[in-house]
Input
Amino acid sequence: MSSRRALLAAPLLALGACGFQPLYGEGGTGAAVGANEPSLAEALASVRVGLIPERNGQLMRRALQRQLEGGRPGVQARYDLEVQLIYATEVLGYQTDGLATRVRIVATASWVLATQSVPREVVDRGSARTVDAYNLPNLQFFASDASREDMERRLVAELSQRVTVGVAAALRRRMSSPAAT
Output
């Protein structure tokens, strides 16, 4: 059993030797280089998410706010995050009479992270994309609506997680660069 543990621990030791650090957790949100510099968790909590139109945008904004703020409410804002959410719909399945039976949604979230300082400095920008689908049962309108809403929740959760990781990576790079203030 101990040889099995040693075999599993070898890749983790190799990752530590190459400079790998976890984005979240003890190594990821610990204190920065200077005593007065914020940790990654505090930097994430200082990001303010701009308004995103439509109902899915509201859900996306709320999910981002929860993930970025974490357990640190009331941190002074230092960064603005602007997100644009785009949905593309594709019909995948048809019945013989031409009615659609399955719909796929391709959701893309493009984001820009900028400082609130004057002049405004763009820290990073990126995009996240995910795909999901739902069925349209014949004459089952409630089931179709429930399936679509569940699919939209999954899309928003996936996109918000990917945007949060992108923002965290950008802030980590900014904190570790010598020119960061």
User: Anything to note?
Assistant: Helices lie at 2-17, 26-29, 40-45, 54-69, 141-176. Confidence is low (pLDDT under 50) at residues 26-35. The chain has one domain: 38-176.
